[in-house]
Fold each of these.
Amino acid sequence: LPWIVWGLLGVATLTPQLVEAGWQWTMLFSCANIVINVIVVWLSRKHAMGAFTSRDAYMVIAVAVGILLWAISDNALFGLWFCLIADFVGVTRIWSKSWHDPDSERIVTWLLGAAAAFSATVSAAYAGETIVLWYPVYVVGNALASAAIIAGRRAVLQRRLEQHLWMPEAER
């Protein structure tokens, strides 16, 4: 279920960019994100998707508030910012899972995501449209933070394991 919510967030994130700036090639990054979410949902359809959680509800509420503020103010940045806030709420779910089970995530995936987002950031900066710049910059930070959390937690758990193995058996 979280992947469905993230797929919807992808659409909600792309829409204000399209409305405010019109089509930009840098938006291919956002489009790829939507496609990836759809593929994950399709591939995982035979597996348990997980229940709708309070975090999922917060994500949907944040997007709804952003869209409402966008409609009231006629400022698409509100829609985008609240989508990014909603996405961050979902990212905390990944960080929590990674903290408890750091081997459930691959660091290289997050680093590749950061590299792709960095490329989109450079492209968006070159295009000169500020609204198109927000999403890839956010993803760079999110992906690097995720990789750091996973690597840091693995290191801590590895040290604990090594300390445990070097203890005399009477102290274990």
Note: The two ends are 41 Å apart (CA to CA).
Amino acid sequence: GRMTVTVLRAKKLPEIKRKNHKPPDAFAVLTYETLQFETEIVKRSRKPIWGQEFSFPITDIRSSFNVSLFDNGLAGDHELIGSVSVGVNEVLRNSALGQQPWYKIFRTNEYGRLRPNGEVQLRLQYQANSRTKHAHQLPTVAAPRTIRSTMRTMRQMRRQVAAMQDILPKA
């Protein structure tokens, strides 16, 4: 299928130390496997608005994509503000589709601890491959979370079927 991610805006971004505590010149980078997309740079804003849309094919719904926010450095020395990794599976399962969730972005501080450093708002759309008509309804099934629970469900169904065959009069 295809995932379309719109990087809408960010908020609560920190002021940048190396720029005398001015707001960042922020841009977002979206990466998925080998693909990389960048938004425009929004100058001096702690709550930049981009509204830029990126679309890419999903090869595996167990994969995830990453959104990182940077402060633009003129010499190409961009400073990471924070990033978030979003599982494709989570998006489908939580039907975040069509919603516009805010994600906290994190970066490691000088002590190696992850610290929230702002939030980014994404709009997520997923289009299933059009081979089968109802494919887009499949991934949102919330029932079996793991293969093991799927197998269990199938065993239970088989037992029910077997039990019913015992009850049914033999033709």
Note: The two ends are 46 Å apart (CA to CA).
Amino acid sequence: AARVLRASPQEKHVTSGRSMKSNLRICPQCGTETTALTCRNDGFGTVDAGRYKKHDPTALIGTLFQDRYRVDAVLGSGGMGSVYRVRHRQLGSVHALKVLRGTTGSERARLIREGRAQSAVRHPNIVAVTDVVEVDDAPGLVIELIDGPSLSAWLREHGRPTAEAAEPTEF
């Protein structure tokens, strides 16, 4: 049986001597442990430490999904999931695969709704969704791959756009 040395609403100590905070959270982007809902280092939302599993997005490289898409590379990874460069096995076409991790039923449904809505829109400034797949019990959207820098790389090079430059355009 665990021996409680000291207990407060925030902290419980067990016989291992390790401190286990009941409200401990982790930033999936940088790994910082905190009790805040938002990471002080990068502003990303934090997740419950008890449910957090460290994810290695490179583990999927070379994997074939639904006998159609082979993962070639990781394009980016963050707190909600990862984006991969995939190649359609028979057509040879290259796409991006957006995969959510640790999804709840409502998050899964939201991604599917996002895919349906996005697949119905054709516009040069909106990537096309071409397929929905399951990746290790997680939903994934196969989307058009756009060649170019990531948003963070673009912002580092160009800085934040002015309000005028960020004005929406009419469809």
Note: Residues 1-21 have pLDDT under 50 and may be disordered.
